Amino acid sequence: MKIDLSDTTASKINKALVQGRRDIGTPAVGMVLTMVIVTDEENAYDSIKAAEEASHEHPSRTLVVIKRHARTPRDRTNSHLDAEVRVGADAGTGETVVLRTYGEVSDHADSVVLPLLLPDAPVVVWWPAEAPEVPAKDPLGALAQRRITDLYAAVNPLEALDARARAYAPGDTDLAWTRLTPWRSMLAAALDQAKSKITSGAVEAEADNPAAELLARWLEARLKVKIDRVVTAGPVVTAVRLGTAAGEVVIDRPDGPLATLSLPGQPSRTLALKVRTTSELIAEELRRLDADEMYAIALRAEGTKETPSHV
Question: Which of 35, 60, 119, 123 could cross-link to 144 by cystine, CB 3.0-4.6 Å?
Fold first, then answer.
């Protein structure tokens, strides 16, 4: 069910949400958090779809803030808010409100969002595209316990990574880090089996890949050895090689959903290591809303300033 509201207010939107729930026969609110998505029209569809898919695991109220540029005389002279309220099958397992702000309302989007937050529920803010320089000090980011950015959307991902490190506050995270969860889990398990001291290492990935840089920094921080950055054709992270006195520990994924794990003195084995969808990444981030200390460690690690080698 969809309800369109033109030149509206937060109070009218709340009334429309209540009415929509009554009309579809589900007046009770069973949502566990509020997800605020700050995006543009170009990225809105994919972001809403990912949030709705993630809501099957985490029922939530999704508030999508789209700041519109003035395109008509009305937009230029009249600061206003348009909204689209979605409930039932049109909103996953929760509720979705698409907020389009015009004029001065765009500069005070937090005043529109605040009355629409679920009472006594955590707030997560996600910027699928352009993110503020300091997410924790952004008016919308200040409302949240969890702030999600995506370095893959940055024009210069590695410069943006360093900026994230300078601006980091507990509760910040990035989908470039979330993409590494399977890699980190498999590496931890492989090192438990290898039982040898790591003396060297390398991360192989496409050029300027922020996830690869975070992975290298995390390995350097945890293993206390220098990790080389090696540029390959990709896609994304293609291999991690860790040297020991007994031989190399290698996870190699040149392409596709499968990787090969090689350990010294053991036969190689095949592992599932697919590139996950955005909805899967968001669902993972919503499972824990406390500070991610490992992300902070990887983000703030010095990293190498040398030019990456190529293969």
Answer: 123
Q: For residue 24, what pLDDT is reported?
A: 80
Distance (Å, whole) CA 28 – CA 40: 31
DSSP letter, residue 75: H
Using DSSP bridges, classify how beta strands 80-87 and 95-102 pair: parallel, antiparallel or unpaired. antiparallel
Task: Decide if 229 contacts 215 (C-beta within 8 A).
Answer: no
Q: How far is CA 3 from the centre of its chain?
A: 29
Rounded mean pLDDT, 137-156? 96
Structure tokens, 75: 């937009």
pLDDT at 303 over 50: no
What end-to-end distance do the CA atoms of the chain give, in Å? 53
**What's the rounded Cα separation, in Å, for the pair 63 and 125?**
9
pLDDT attached to residue 304: 44
Q: Retrieve residue 64's tokens.
A: 């999508």
What radius of gyration, in Å, describes the C-alpha atoms of the chain?
A: 22
- The amino acid present at 311, given as its one-letter code, is V
Pairing of strands 33-39, 123-126: parallel
**Band of the pLDDT at 71, cuts 50, 70, 90?**
low
Q: Where are the alpha helices (DSSP H) in 60-197?
A: 73-77, 109-113, 157-167, 175-178, 181-194
The ranges assigned to domains in the chain are: 2-174, 181-275
The closest alpha carbon to 291, from 117, 173, 152, belongs to 173
Is residue 212 pLDDT above 70, yes or no?
Answer: yes
- How many of the other CB atoms lie within 10 Å of CB of 78? 14
Q: Which residues pair with 64 in a beta bridge?
A: 37, 98
219 phi and psi angles, rounded to 5 deg: -65, -40
